[in-house]
Amino acid sequence: MSSENRQSNVLAWSLLVVLGGGLLTVLLSYSPPVDISVEGHRIDEAFGYTTRLITIYFAIVLFVMGYCLVRFRARPGHSAEYIEGNQPRHLLMTGALAASVFMLIDMRLIATSAHDASEIFWKFPTGKDVVKIQVLGQQFEWHFRYAGPDAKFNTADDVETTALLHVPKGKPILMQLRSKDVIHSLFLPNVRLKQDAIPGRQTQLWFQATAPGDYELACAELCGLGHYKMRGQFIVDEPADFEAWIAAQLKDAEEEYDADDKSANWGWDWEARN
Ligand SMILES: [Cu+2]
Description:
single chain; alpha+beta; Immunoglobulin-like; five-stranded mixed β-sheet; 4 helices; 10 strands; binds copper (II) ion
């Protein structure tokens, strides 16, 4: 065998080993943060399904590559051939593989995500039980506002926090988001939600948490040099603890309230559509 042939064989095998190793590494290291929401499993299922199918297809491709490397390699008495893959059966094989990827992965994703969006994630909860929170994104902080006992926003009994979100377990949480400056994106990995806060617009999201604990929130939209600072605490409380926390905050809130301070009173009328 010529040294050139040997070289290209080594190269092809190295490529195969690297790709296969990469695949294994990704599969073994895939560990999303714990899901503590009622509907988050839908996102995980979409990820899981896509990952499983892509893994199968990728493994098939690797197998065919490996098979061809052995079967058609240059060796004493047999030289490697250059094939352009333009014969009808080649095109048919490629087309069939592409079509099955499209049908099994893309179409299925479109169908399930359309269903989940319209039936779950965009069906915003109503009723007395709903905990309403207003969210303001700004360079480089997240602000959260709770209406307080009067149930009205932007009044003296509002509770306001920065980089700290408290919610009670087991109740639907409905949030309205706005931005003061540029596009931000509120990311709550543990409930599998991410929603842009867009200047000049009001967006919303909802979820229901299932497990008390201390989690993280972040900004998922590169919004400037201080983007990395927009992380915060996301705390899920037992309902009684949540009420106690609100009550404790209320004292400070009423002392600090200043009706003339426009920037501190950034809240809005809940019904306003912006
Ligand atoms: Cu941001």
